[in-house]
Amino acid sequence: MARSFSNQRKSTFLAGIAVLTALFTFSPIDISAKESNTGYKPFVIGPKIRMGGRFDNVRMCVASPAGSKGGPAADISLSAEIALKETISLDMDLPVFRPIMFGLAFDMLQFEPSVTLKFRKKGSGRTDLVGGPTLGISLHYGPDYKSESSGDKRTASFFAMGPIIGGYIGIDFKRPSRKFNLQLGVTPYVEPLFGVNDAQDHRGVVVGGLLDLQFRFGKPGRAG
User: Tell me: the pLDDT tens digits for 45-79?
Assistant: First the structure.
């Protein structure tokens, strides 16, 4: 019966991936802002698909065997970018997939919102180079890395939190004839984590990296 329940949770997990990916990726809604008087659009919004891996000596990884310090990482998030100047913007990333599915399928919370200050170097063609520092917060509730995901060998859950310190570098592919641009980049990061009201005083570090594919409705920067 335990095996059947585990398989059911895995099916729910995979179904959630498919549904959320379809909703965010193929949504036809364009909620971009109008161009400002200076010729660039001050607001951009769109889904971001994130995949990578991490070393993690604090939290349980649902995709790795018990005792593994880390494993693969993935998320689908909502990104909103506000232009501060023509070549400087603030990108706010709100995780969607991981918090919802971890809560439903694994009785866990992993929530890691962040902001990135992006600097844009305009290219001569249809690509721009973008990059800048990233700061955020990591919130965790669940077992440690020694735990099984379910059953008698699942250990007690605990709260932990810590800062996210990282950076971003990517390429913005401008597509003036389409409704959205594409941006492909990488985000390396480090997270010191500390237990909160935790009897076992869990603490450690997460070091990882993500490959980010962002669908950008609004296209900040000069038209064309």
Answer: 999 999 999 999 999 999 999 999 999 999 999 99
Name the residue among 188, 184, 183 with its Cα closest to residue 168. 188
- Set out the domains of the chain in order of their start, with CATH numbers: 2-217 (2.40.160.20)
Pairwise CA distance, residues 62 & 159, whole Å: 17
DSSP 178: S
Kindly report, residue by residue over 84-128, the tens digit of the pLDDT: 988 999 999 999 999 999 999 999 999 999 999 999 998 878 899
27 pLDDT above the threshold of 70:
no
HSE of 36, CA atoms in CB hemisphere, 13 A: 15
Q: Establish how many alpha carbons lie within 13 A of residue 95's alpha carbon, considering only the half-sphere containing its beta carbon.
A: 21
Name 1's Cβ contacts closer than 8 Å, sequence gap at least 6: none
pTM: 0.78
Q: 79, 137, 143, 81: which is closest to 106 by C-alpha?
A: 143
Q: Distance between CA atoms of 184 and 83, rounded to whole angstroms?
A: 19
Dihedral of the alpha carbons of 160, 61, 102, 200, in degrees to the nearest 10: -30
Q: Which residue, 186, 194, 191, is CA-closest to 207?
A: 191
- Between 85 and 17, name the one with better pLDDT: 85
Write phi, then psi, for 117 (nearest 5 degrees).
Answer: -90, 110
Residue pair 153/124 in contact (Cβ under 8 Å)? The answer is: no
Among 31, 54, 53, 55, smallest CA distance to 43 is for 31
